[in-house]
Amino acid sequence: MTRFPLKHITLISISATAALLPICSGAQRRAQTHTPPAPPPRVRIEIEKRGVVIAELFRQKTPKTTAHFIALVKRHFYDHVLFHSVVKGFMASTGDPKSKSFNGAKLAGLSELQIAEKYALGAGSSGSTVPLEPGYDHDRGTLGLQHPRANIDAGDCVFFFNLTDNQENYGAYTAFGKVISGLSVLDKINQGDRITSIRIVTSEAELEVKGTRGKVLR
Question: I want to staple 181 with a disulfide (CB 3.0 to 4.6 A). Which of 54, 98, 119, 164 is the partner?
Fold first, then answer.
């Protein structure tokens, strides 16, 4: 066995430790470097004769609802659906696929109950559902997902805009997005109005709505 003087052993130990330091520091730096989260998805909603609304979706807290909604948007599921129920100063509901070929003028002056009983609008389906994901307040301009009264975990395609603060909806319905541009358009919506299209925003140019360029309007 080769024997080394104590001072040589000490030097070897220090050298070995020094050699390891850059590796440890690099690992620590990598651990401290976080990939920035992806920006929240946004959708552009064109409402016939009313204007354009840009909405930002709450992907972080409502991942299942957001993914479900985006999947429907990518299928052009919401093209030409009606606002089958609008209560001024309260809510505007849309998203029923059965309303696409329906004459919206027939809905004028009818209550939500009358519309449901007479025309069976408001309970349409896409064929899949998502559970309730509470976590956001139902402030003015937020989007909420409707569900059957008998099953809170069966939300699907029918959704609504909160036209005012509706905190009684907190915990009862999933708020999965908010209007960030074109908020004033919501106040123009009448029962029987039609959504021309909903598309995923993929460029900054698509955020331009009457010069607001994504500015939050309150």
Answer: 54
Contact 215, 82 (CB under 8 A): no
Q: Report d(CA 57, CA 66) in Å as an integer.
A: 7
Q: Is residue 81 part of a domain?
A: yes
User: Are 84 and 117 within 8 A, CB to CB?
Assistant: no
Counted residue by residue, the chain has a size of 218
- Give residue 126's domain range: 42-207
pLDDT tens digits, one per residue of 85-136: 999 999 999 999 999 999 999 999 999 999 999 999 999 999 999 999 998 9
Q: What is the pTM of this model?
A: 0.78
CA quadruple 175, 176, 181, 184: dihedral sign:
negative
> In one letter, which amino acid is 103?
N
Please report how many Cα atoms fall inside a 13 Å half-sphere around the Cα of residue 68, on the Cβ side.
Answer: 23
